[in-house]
Design goal:
The complex is a heterodimer of chains A (626) and B (162).
Chain A lengths: L1 E2 L6 H55 L4 H7 L1 H12 L6 E9 L5 E6 L11 E2 L4 H10 L3 E4 L8 E9 L2 E10 L2 H46 L7 E2 H5 L3 E2 L5 E8 L2 H8 L1 H18 L5 E6 L2 E7 L6 H17 L2 E3 L2 E3 L3 E6 L8 H17 L5 E4 L1 H6 L5 H9 L3 E10 L5 E11 L5 E2 L5 H4 L3 H20 L5 E5 L7 H9 L2 H5 L1 E6 L7 H13 L3 E7 L6 H5 L5 E4 L1 H4 L6 H17 L2 E4 L5 H10 L3 E2 L11
Parallel strand pairs in A: 8-11, 15-16, 18-20, 20-21, 21-22, 22-23, 23-24, 24-25
Antiparallel strand pairs in A: 1-9, 2-3, 2-7, 3-4, 5-6, 6-7, 10-12, 10-15, 11-12, 13-14, 17-18, 17-25, 18-19
Helix pairs in contact in A: 1-3, 1-5, 7-8, 12-14, 14-15
Chain B lengths: L1 H14 L8 H17 L4 E6 L3 H11 L3 E3 L8 E4 L16 E3 L4 H4 L3 E8 L2 E7 H6 L12 E2 L13
Parallel strand pairs in B: 1-2, 1-3, 3-4, 4-5, 6-7
Antiparallel strand pairs in B: 5-6
Helix pairs in contact in B: 2-3
The chains are: A alpha/beta (626), B alpha/beta (162).
């Protein structure tokens, strides 16, 4: 069995993981390389600017002498112009702005001098610096600071040199680098990083997608193939493409709660549901590992049992008996309500002989049906091999048997119970199947009644026995006929045409005639046949609703009491009295009585006690070929 | 779903915009939105945009700002935003509305200009004129103090606070 659980798409998952891993490596490496390259370029630029800055600062401080450098630059236009000229000399494609700022008492940065060629600032103009903490660091520590500007679109980096006068930082000389090379580098590496991070993001999304699909499939599976009440698989699961089963490896059983409707009507559907849920739990804990339990219908569970958990089918059936017993002994408690249930189990012990699971389930179902019919609370097995042997024959198959001479008779003796002698034999029709198996009339007779096949069949039986009586002059034989045969010209015609000697040694056993519409005609035919030499026997007396008065209306020789009465004659007083009464009545009217079903000595004794003269049954002789 | 992911991947590779960093345009719009709402003490601000860069700025604000409602006349506006040069001067009806400019020099040109937002050496700068704000009873939280300047102290030659 393969239960098709939702699965990860493994190749996709590995691909995504590989992408994520490699992307991370490339991403981290690119960041490191970028930083190193940036550091090197900046340090090179700073080394050049730094020396120039130092010269400017030195020159400025020399010029201002003892005067405060900020006040000097603020008020001395000449000085400021000279400084700005010097600063402007440094402005190149790479160094966009060069300027001097100071910090006022309010903590605002203001321009003192600006050598920039574009976006030139006014003297004293407030300047909102970016990353102020770095500017303050230069002010506090009196050390050079390099700011790598992230987020400014025109300035790549800023180099700040403090102007220190008498040990105090008075102002800051700054250069903004438009570091195109860094930007280019950033751009190139940025593409790589964006690409790798994009791949990583996409890979993570793929992973998430994979997990999402897996969970979704699991959820759908649960919704589709799980029974909400019991949590077991449902019938739809068996039809799903995910489900495949090797029938050779499993036994099947259908477990059905007996009279479940009563539970629902007595205690309510809520309790009924709880019973089913508890029952599912019991089954789960009882069945061997590897079994599959399916809530197949309302109160019906299908269980697939691995064959290798059992020695053979006998052990399997024994196990099912323990399941049945276990359920029977459980008291389900729901609040104050105590509920006990019984189950019937139909097992298919040869599912491998079925062409599909459906067919195998049908087998188990027929066994379950039998279990129900036979009184419930029992385990019944369906064995394809056995069932096949018991398979009913169609009219066509009976025709084939007729054509190929496979109709035979087995003969059971009718014995004089006083003398112990066989008075005659009852011819019992049989068909031999293609394999030579003997099939009883129960497998074909009902299906051909009323058809021309039946007439042909009866004529064949008459013919077989005619031949036998011709060959064996010592024998007397009875054949079975239906009342309707007595109105069938073909049958009657054939009987009439038999040789007189044959007719005298042939008995016609006719099943009860009560209730048939053409009773008078049947009676007249029987009388005619009797006059021709046939002995007449009424068969199966007591099986229907016949009465003795009707019997008296016909001239008959024998009356055969049905086995259903005789079998209890030693145990059931009513049966005993009935047999006794019939026997006495027939003795009075000159009809000989035959009792069927003489299976044991007790029955035989009782029959003798009540005066039954003739008997038939396994104790006296089984049906067999002569 | 896989097609969507593939599309996303291609888009990321092709455009590869730095994630997390705001563009100067977006930064400008966000700053203006913050200043205006704080300045007027309103959740949403009605702004009339004037100037030769009106279309660009209008588009930008529409894209990046959720709290600025652009209006077509001074009567409907809480504030006038000057975007670029203003040809023909300020309409008379706008005289009593506070002005905010995207150029520093406008604070010297228009008496009603209460402040400016502009880019100085690649850096976003804010200038707010203390007297003009007080005159219009427009008060800002202390976090704006660092951007406040006295107009008297402002001058092309002597803006400093020495």
């Amino acid at each position: 069995m393969r239960i098709g659980d939702a699965r990860f798409n493994l190749p996709l998952m590995f691909l995504a993981l590989a992408f994520v891993g490699s992307s991370m490596v490339v991403y981290l490496a690119s960041e490191k390389i970028e930083r190193r390259v940036e550091d090197r370029i900046i340090s090179e630029v700073v080394s050049i600017v730094g020396s120039m800055f130092r010269n400017i600062v030195e020159d400025l401080l020399t010029k201002v002498g003892d005067e405060d450098v900020v006040i000097a630059l603020f008020h001395n236009d000449q000085l400021r112009r000279e400084v700005e000229r010097a600063l402007s000399m440094m402005v190149t494609q790479e160094i966009r702005y060069v300027y001097i700022v100071y910090r006022d008492e309010d903590g605002k940065f203001r321009f003192l001098a600006d050598g920039s060629k574009e976006d030139k600032a006014e003297l004293g103009e407030k300047f909102d610096v970016f990353r102020e903490e770095k500017w303050l660091e230069a002010l506090r520590k009196g050390k050079e600071v390099v700011i790598l500007q992230e987020g400014l679109n025109r300035v790549g980096a800023t180099y700040i040199m403090p102007i220190v006068q008498r040990g105090r930082v008075k102002a800051l000389l700054a250069a903004d680098f438009s570091v195109e090379r860094i930007q280019e580098l950033r751009g190139t590496l940025g593409v790589v990083r964006n690409a790798t991070s994009s791949v990583a993001i996409a890979s993570v999304l793929l992973l998430i997608l994979n997990i999402y699909q897996y969970q979704r499939k699991k959820r759908l599976e649960k919704e589709l193939y799980r029974d909400q009440l019991t949590g077991l698989y449902n019938k739809a699961y068996l039809d799903s493409e995910n489900f495949t089963l090797d029938l050779k490896s499993y036994y099947l059983a259908l477990i059905d709660v007996d009279d479940f409707r009563k539970v629902n009507t007595t205690y309510g559907e809520e309790v009924g549901d709880l019973v089913l849920r508890e029952l599912a739990t019991v089954l789960r804990s009882t069945v061997p590992e590897g079994s599959l339990i399916v809530r197949y219908a309302g109160e019906e569970f299908l269980v697939l049992f691995p064959k290798d958990k059992f020695e053979d089918k006998v052990e399997f059936l024994r196990f099912l008996e323990t399941v049945r017993e276990k359920v029977k002994n459980i008291t389900f408690m729901f609040d104050s309500v105590e509920v006990r249930v019984k189950v019937s189990i139909g097992a298919n012990v040869s599912p491998e002989r079925s062409r599909s699971l459906e067919e195998a389930i049908r087998g188990a179902d027929s066994a379950l049906y039998r279990a129900k019919r036979l009184g419930k609370d029992r385990v019944e097995a369906y064995d394809e091999a056995v069932e096949e042997r018991q398979k009913r024959l169609s009219a066509t198959e009976v025709m084939e048997a007729l054509s190929s001479g496979r109709i035979v008779c087995h003969y059971q003796p009718i014995v004089d119970l006083e003398k112990g002698e066989v008075i005659h034999y009852e011819a019992l029709a049989r068909i031999l199947d293609q394999n030579g198996n003997v099939l009883p009339p129960g497998l074909f007779l009902e299906d051909i009644k009323g058809t021309f096949v039946y007439t042909r069949f009866v004529k064949e039986i008459i013919e077989i026995n005619r031949r036998l009586l011709k060959e064996r002059e010592d024998l007397r034989v009875s054949i079975n006929l239906l009342p309707t045969d007595m109105t069938d010209e073909n049958v009657v015609g054939l009987l009439v045409s038999l040789e007189p000697d044959v007719r005298r040694r042939m008995l016609l056993e006719i099943t009860e005639v009560e209730g048939i519409p053409s009773f008078d005609k049947v009676r007249m035919t029987i009388d005619s046949l009797r006059r021709l030499g046939f002995r007449i026997c009424i068969d199966d007396f007591g099986a229907g609703y016949s009465n003795l008065v009707n019997i008296t209306q016909m001239r008959i020789d024998y009356l055969k009491i049905d086995g259903s009465i005789v079998k209890d004659v030693d145990k059931n007083r009513t049966s005993y009295l009935l047999v006794k009464m019939v026997s006495e009545f027939c003795r009075e009217v000159g009809v000989r009585v035959i009792a069927e079903y003489v299976e044991n000595e007790e029955i035989l004794k009782k029959l003798r006690d009540v005066g039954v003269r003739y008997g038939q049954g396994y104790l006296l002789g089984k049906p067999e070929p002569l | 779903m896989r097609k969507v992911l593939l599309g996303l991947l291609v888009a990321l590779l092709a455009f590869g915009a730095p994630v997390g960093g705001k563009s100067p345009e977006e930064l400008e719009a966000r700053i203006l939105e913050k200043i205006f709402t704080d300045l007027l003490g309103k959740e949403r601000v009605r702004v009339l945009i004037l100037g030769d860069k009106e279309r660009t700025v209008s588009k930008r604000l529409r894209r990046f700002s959720e709290k600025i409602d652009q209006v077509g006349s001074c009567e409907d506006a809480d504030l006038v935003l000057l975007a670029g040069r203003l040809k023909g001067g300020l309409p008379e009806v706008c005289g009593d509305k506070p002005l905010f400019s995207l150029r520093r020099e406008d604070v010297f040109k228009f008496e009603s200009c209460v402040g400016a937002f502009y880019w100085k050496k690649g850096r976003p700068n804010i200038l707010l004129i203390r007297e003009r704000l007080e005159e219009r009873k427009l008060y800002l939280p202390p976090e704006y103090n660092r951007y406040m300047e006295s107009f008297r102290g402002l001058s092309l030659r002597s803006g400093g606070g020495l």
